[in-house]
Amino acid sequence: MLALSRKKNEAIVINNDIEITVLEVKGDQVKIGISAPKEVPIYRKEVYIQIQEANKASVDADGMEALKNLFG
Q: What is the distance between the alpha carbons of residues 17 and 11, in angstroms, rounded to a whole number?
């Protein structure tokens, strides 16, 4: 992991086309802005984890059995 110090209105650039800017710092919260191409998905980590868990649940053993029954 790369750890950087940034102040308000300072930014970092990732892969030439993603820019992350510190918009505001209030107490223990930091508000960031992300500029990225539309095809780059951006999720809060807790939402990303929920999506991954839902995807895993959709292909569990019961789901596979139902798929087998559907296709004979």
A: 13
Q: What is the rounded distance in angstroms from the CA atom of residue 29 to the CA atom of residue 70?
A: 50
CB under 8 Å to 13, separation ≥6 — which residues? 19, 20
What is the C-alpha separation between 4 and 7, in angstroms, rounded?
10
42: amino acid identity, one letter: I
pTM of the entire predicted model: 0.71
Between CA 31 and CA 34 the distance in angstroms is: 10
**57-67 residue pLDDT tens:** 777 766 677 77
The tens digit of pLDDT for each residue in 16-34 reads: 999 999 999 999 999 999 9
